[in-house]
What does this fold into?
Amino acid sequence: MTQPPDFDLPAAHKFFSVHCFNEAWTLIDKQQRTGEENEQMVRLTQASLWHWTRREDCTATNLSVGHWQAARVYALVEDAAAARRHGLLALEYAKDAGPFYLGYAHEALARAAAVAGDDGRKKEHLAQAQALVAAVENAEEKKWLTNDLATIN
It folds into this structure.
């Protein structure tokens, strides 16, 4: 039987959910990654998501963001199926989170479709994301989403 830890487990989940997310983001931003860095990026995003699911303050919006990051990571490592799976989860969790999060879920699905070579689905999700941009009230968030949509080939 496992002994209770001698540290604050909720604090550890809070720390690692954010720490792993940020470390994955550092690798996402890297222009060129090694194969090991790609593997590390996948492990970090999955660890972040797992730790979020253990937090008492975890919301559907947090999970939408976590699955969006996982979809981005899997698109970067060209795993279209995993990118789509996480994009769909991001969309499901974002359904009540507002246009910014819904837009990013469609952005994730557009990237997954691009990796899969599915131009029709890519255009469909890009159009849905671009339609949501107009409803984003925060100017900085609107700019982030617009800029990220412009990077999808």
